[in-house]
Amino acid sequence: MGSRIRVLASMLCGLALGGVAPLSQAATVKVTLPLSPDARPLDGRLVVVVSPNPSPEPRLQVDLEAPLRSPYMFGQTVDGLKPGETVALDARAYGWPLETLSALPPGDYTVQAVLNRYETFHRADGSTVKLPPEMGEGQQWNLKPGNRYSAPVKVHLGPGGAPVTLTLDKVIPPVTPPAETPFVKHIRIRSELLSKYWGRDVYLGAHVLLPAGFADHPQAHYPLMVFHGHFPDDISGFRTTPPDPDLKPDYSERFHLAGYNRIQQREAYDFYKTWTSKGFPRFLVIEIQHANPYYDDSYAVNSANLGPYGDAINRELIPYIEKTFRGLGQGWARFTYGGSTGGWEAMATQVFYPDLYNGAFAACPDPIDFRAYTNVNLYADKNQYVDKGVANAIDRPSMRDYLGRTMATQKDSNHMELVLGDKGRSGGQYDIWQAVYGPQGADGLPAPIFDKKTGEIDPKVAAYWREHFDLTHIIQRDWAMLGPKLEGKLHIYVGSADTYFLTDAVYFAQDTLESLTSPAWGGEIAYGDRAEHCWNGDPKLANAYSRLHYNTMYLPKILKRISDTAPAGADLTSWRY
To answer: Which pairs with CB-CB distance under 8 Å and at least 24 residues apart come from 350-356?
Structure first.
């Protein structure tokens, strides 16, 4: 899973940071796009963040995965905002947790506006849509290069205030690409398939971890391990130098560990030592960058709203990497794994491209059965937000902590997304599921699976999801064809107390998979007792540590699979030096 947010600008009183001016609850809030020589009219989502805390900047305080720590925010879509023009935040602006600006309680606040720019895409299917372009940052509205934003401003909200104007006079700079090293290479290719679909050049990226001795063994060819996950800025957890002894220890609230940054550095250096040790199997690891106008990740499948990302990754990018870095280039020598979004992708890749991979290790996967879309049954329930009884209704949670306490409701999570973008354009978790799994609507944007304000589920859209992306249903439906290709390849792991309620879908999937015959599915499912997100199958280590071992923890199972299934004459030795 993941989360993204967008900032829209307009509201509250002016002055520079440090100044305080009164602002009435009825005051007009205005945002101005300044004049500049190269300025042009802009479309986008204007987000205004209002926080009682001055630091860090309000735009950096918004976190879809931590609603209890997030400030007030309000969003409004703008079309053709001209240089020098001012737009007022009006009744069209939607807010969270308060729906309107006028509901803000009196007090001192720091306010900031961000315009998440949209561009117009003319797609090959004939649809024309306005969406935020991916600019190398992984589709994050508050960090996106080229987005305009205002300086933080201190205001007093209360009786007797004056109209307020914020100015979008700052621009987020470009991302600095990571440097290459003897072990880590960075690939970026133009995808013919995606460029044709989107009507403009579209690129796929990847970070490639080379095995020790790569240059000294030119005759060696290597198995390929595809590590799926959210937009990676480099190879994860690999460090060629010892941990920094002067690193100031931090505290991980998620894992309740002091000095977790030091633990990460130590584990990354230990991985390097293992990677280069004598006798360690040599293989290629890749992490893919496939952010798009809807999210930091495409889910690595072909879909109506995102286009042919599955084919582009598996038929363009993967063959290019294998040719460039001497991969074996055969299905028996490819494996895929990952956690959360990456767990779903690992399983989906194996299911939709069964001959191209020899095993998938899906940790804490996003919902693999839509009878448990987190904790909602899309086929039986009527509402995403509430469980309705005879006389009352109970809000459904969307997140829980390791003790089971609710951290956010389904309504919270989706209404926060609605602030950051209407019509499925928030860049958030629920909106990308809708974009990937669903059909296009009449406007060319994703057809809503449920009403974003009320939570009412659309059964027709749910039926489309079932036939196209409910992995459990698809496996069962197509088992006569898929069975011989998937036997023994699917491995699924999840904590019994997953933060995002991803456990239940695995329960349903297990019942279905274990009922399959001719052949039996022959895979593995395991549950981490009391483990939250994202347990990945290690029964001895806590999440805080096992999550740092993805590139080695499944290796014994992978090597056995290669030994048991490699065809006659397969190269089992050139990469074992």
So the answer is: 350/486, 350/489, 350/490, 351/471, 351/474, 351/475, 351/482, 351/486, 352/301, 352/302, 352/310, 353/310, 353/314, 354/482, 354/485, 354/486, 354/489, 355/331, 355/485, 356/314, 356/318, 356/331
Q: Is the whole-model pTM more than 0.90?
A: yes
- Residues 548-556 have a mean pLDDT of 95
Q: Quote the strand ranges of 11-64, DSSP E.
A: 22-23, 29-32, 42-51
Phi-psi region of 84 (alpha: psi -120 to 50; beta: other; left: phi over 0): left
Backbone angles phi, psi at 434, to 5 degrees: -65, -40
What digits encode the pLDDT tens for the residues 310-339?
Answer: 999 999 999 999 999 999 999 999 999 999
Q: Residues 429, 3: contact at Cβ < 8 Å? A: yes
Q: Which CATH number fits domain 184-369+470-495+540-565: 1.10.3470, 1.20.120, 1.10.260, 3.40.50?
A: 3.40.50
CA distance 344 to 518: 25
The C-alpha angle 211, 213, 216, rounded to 5 degrees, equals 140
